[in-house]
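Re: the 449-residue chain
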Amino acid sequence: MSDREEQAKKLTAAIAGLEAQRAALGDAVVEPALAALRDQLSELKTSARDGVTGDERKIVTIVFADITGFTALAEKLDAEEVRTLINACFECLVPIVQKYAGTIDKFIGDEIMALFGAPVAHEDDPERALRASLEMMDAIEVFNRARGTHLGMHIGVNTGPVVAGSVGAHGRRDYSVMGDAVNLAARLVDASESGEIFVGPATHRRTANLFGFQKIPPVKVKGKEEPVAVHRLVGRAAAPKPMRGIEGLRSSLVGRDKELQEIQSALSGLQRGHGSIVAIVGEAGLGKSRLVAETRALLPENVAWAEGRALSYTAGMSYWLAREILRDLLGLKAEASSVEIGMELRKSVETEINDEVIDVYPYLSRLFDIDLADAMEERVKFLGAQALQARILEAFRIYIRARSLRKPLVLIWEDLHWCDPSSLQVLEALLPLTREGPLMVLWVSRLTD
């Protein structure tokens, strides 16, 4: 990875981290800092584009997001009002692309073309593109409610090889990408209807384990002799698992007998009321996730299991990994609303620790932006950032201790090398509980420098 790419990743993570702290710090503090970081990132990307002297071949995920409904509005509003509305809509959508380290390639009327993987590439660009697409769909609904409009959106996503570089004539060159993968993404958005996200075959292969898809009849698109296999994206998978190896092919785990025996011994101890800490650390591709899968296969019926996975772009998002584990413990669906989350969390806390609800529920609810009743809100509204963090850590400790004492519990922290600092503090707070009862904490991480 070049120095420029590394710097861009750090700036993007810093921007995401500030956004995550907006509620605690306030707009007056966050906005000036964000403006400075975004200016730095913009200058970095501009210098990257200006410095391109030749074409570069890359694997890129391309997103075309077309907003519908402006034509009908143009019949009621004058051109200036329509332009203002379009720009306001773009203001809602562009930060979502940037949140996942995507790049806005261009605006084409009321359509956005975004790139994930150029100029800066990440190993999970297809996943980032689909997460951004889902959030843009949600953002349009929020925009409509706030503005009283009836706009729609349909999206086409595809992954494939492109040629990236400067495009244009002397005096006006812009960084862009060209290739068949771009053309197919554009055809997919044309083939989709409002509210749909059509995903090309290469993107689907790379993300099938992370999202919910609906297979639809192959689509005949311009420029292709044969119909294209297309999937409709319907949402995040309830319990996404990292994909390793070849889908549908499973073989016996070789050379890991010692590790499996140690894990099996820890699970046996768990049933006798003894906790443990297990760390699986190694280079990428050495079977760490497979070892976790084998561990789950060994799990006795009377032992509970919850897991979360950090992602390469969540290191700056406070409590991301801890929140994912809590979601799994609560059995939440990916599309659960804040109201549904609040109900499930309250019910679980009351079941596990009824006499300490006031010490747990208000603080864990902060991880999900749940609206609290006045009495609960009073517990948190005047706390400073450090005091709130201390209460959140204690609430986690109380809740997990109660869950593990009722039923032996295994908590899996996957891809810990990408973990956000707040979740690491939660993990640290939970480790002593492994000496008090049947709690196994297992984390998976790559070797880091």
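The mean pLDDT is 83.
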